[in-house]
C-alpha cells in the first residue's frame, strides 16, 4: 500500500470546491430572457468590443434561427421590388424587426448553452484521457511489449477514472436528450421538423437509440477494464504458468477490435453530431489521435511525479524516453490527420463541408490556430531532440502544453455548434476544468494507494526492469 503527502490529498478537494463554486456562478449568471441579452449586447457595444463575440452576425453554421432570419430578410427585399414603396417599406421593417428578435433569441440560447458546453468539454476531455490510457494499456498486452510492465499500475490507476468519468458524460448526454439543455440541435423536434437533412438522419440520430449506443460503448469499455485489472492482479497472485497473462492477451485483442468500431461511432455521436449537417470520414481517427496522445502524456506526467517522490525506483530514463517518443510520434500522427481532414475539405471548397472550417477560422481564430501551434510546433521543436526526452522538467513542460492544446482541440469541436459566436474562455470553462481536474487527481491517486506500484507476476517484468535504450 502506498501513501501520499497531504498536499496531493488536499489539492483535488480544493480544485473540486473551486470548480463547483465557479460552475454554480456560471449557471446562475446565464441570461434568462431576451431583455437580459439586449442589456449584455448593449454593454458590450458601449465597451467598444464584443467580448465573448456574441454580437458577431456571421455565425451561420450553428444558427438555424439566424438562417431563418436571413431568409426572411431576403424575402422582404424581394417584396420591395414588386409591391408599392410604402407597403414594401413596412414589410421590410417588420422583417427586420422579426430578424432582430430571432437573432436575440438565438444569442440567448447560445449564452444559456455556454456553461453546459463548458461542462461537457471538460467532462469529455478528462474521460477521453482515461480511455486513451486504456487503449495504450491494451496495446501493451496485445503486442506482448517487454518495456512497459513497470508502468502497468500507473496505467491501471489512470483508467480508474473511466467509470465515474463515463457516468458523468452519460448523464450530460441524457440531460440533453431530456431537453434540460440544447447542446445537440438535432434533439429539438421543432428544428428537425423544418430540416429535411436531419429528417433523413433520424434513424440514427434519435434520442433513445443515441442513449442506448452510449450505454453500450461505456459498458463495453468498462467491462474490459474490469477483467483486465482482474487478470493482472491474478497474474501477480499466481505467477507460474502465465495462464492469466494469456487471458489478458486475448481480452486485449478482443477489446481493441471492439474499440476500433465503438470509438468511431462514439466520435460521431458525442462530438460530430453537434454539427449534424457536416461529416468527415476521418473524424473517428482524428478524435482517437487526440485521445491517445493525451492519455500517453498523462502516463508520462504521473510517472515523472511518482519517481520524484521516491516511487517507481526501477523505472529508468529509457522508460521516460519511450513515453516521450510516443508523445512526439502521436503528435505528428494527430497533425497528419488534422491536415488531411482540413486540406481536403478546404481545397475541394464544397459549401456544406467547408463551412465547418470557415466558422472556426472566422470566429475562433486564436483557438483554432493556437491549437495547431500547441499540438504540433511546440512538441516538434522540443521533443525532436533525443536528449530532451530524458529530462523530466522538459517532459512536464511539453506534457502540459500538449494537454492544453488538446483541451482547446475539443473546445473547437464543441463550442462553434453550441455557443457559436458567443464563445469565450472565462469562469464557466476554467471552473469546469478545475472541477474535473480535481476529480481526476482524486480518483487516480486513490487507485494508486490500493496496491503495490510494481507488478510481480508479469512474465516480461525482468525485461522491463533491465530495459535500456
Structure description:
It contains 17 helices and no strands. The protein is mainly alpha-helical and 469 residues long. The longest helix is centred in the first third of the chain and has 58 residues, at 85-142. The chain is globular, with a radius of gyration of 25 Å.
The count of strands amounts to 0
State the helix count.
Answer: 17
- CA distance, first residue to last residue: 31 Å
Q: Please tell me what the overall shape is.
A: globular
Radius of gyration: 25 Å
Which terms summarize this structure?
mainly alpha, 74% helix, globular, 0% strand, 17 helices, 469 residues
Short description:
With 469 residues, this protein is mostly helical. It is built from 17 helices and no strands.
Furnish the topology, listing elements before pairings.
Blueprint: H1 6-28, H2 34-46, H3 64-80, H4 85-142, H5 152-158, H6 162-177, H7 189-193, H8 196-200, H9 207-237, H10 243-270, H11 283-308, H12 317-348, H13 351-363, H14 365-383, H15 392-418, H16 427-448, H17 461-465
Helix pairs in contact: 1-16, 3-4, 4-5, 4-6, 4-10, 4-11, 4-15, 4-16, 5-16, 6-9, 9-10, 10-11, 11-12, 11-15, 12-14, 12-15, 13-14, 14-15
